[in-house]
Amino acid sequence: MTVVHWDDRPGDDLAAAVGAGWACLRRITIDARDPLHLDAEDRETIVWILDRDAVIVRRPADLERSVRARATLDVLVFAAGGAGASWLGAPPSRGVVQPSEVEGERVVDGLTSIVRRDVGGAAGAVAAGVELVDIAPARRGFPSPHLEEVSVVLQGSGRVVGGGAEPWVLRGSVVGRAERFVAGPQGLRVLSFRELAPPA
Is the pTM of this model over 0.85? Predict the structure, then answer.
């Protein structure tokens, strides 16, 4: 398990920093006068708007490959998917999707108490899974056990457990290969990215 903080790695590939070579994750500021051009020719791109808690999906086949802002936006940009993928037949992306528009799945079992939302699927993502997880105060949540993930703490604080270590995490912490999260007294909101098989 590796943990970094986005403030310590400005402009860096945060996915690579936590050992996830299959994806690219950066924190970027979009200015109203300078749109974000998504130039990855063979990857699906997920843009998470930090100030608004909203997600946008763009694929190589989309006519509009830019993200424009009316005001300055602070975003996470995640790219995944492989060369040679055919995007024909993939459902259209929906534009901007907010978590409040996505039905949450509540999981309560022993010390686990979470609500998770498939925000990526709701926005039309097919090559990348994007899940927003709210962990109740003093409870725990688990990443997907069979998938490699990169997780970003958006709200609250707590501990992340992995490889015998239990470092404290807070907003801006980026985690690779976590075994579980344990929320502090305010709870914990985590955004997790995972690679899915792109359309054949």
Answer: yes
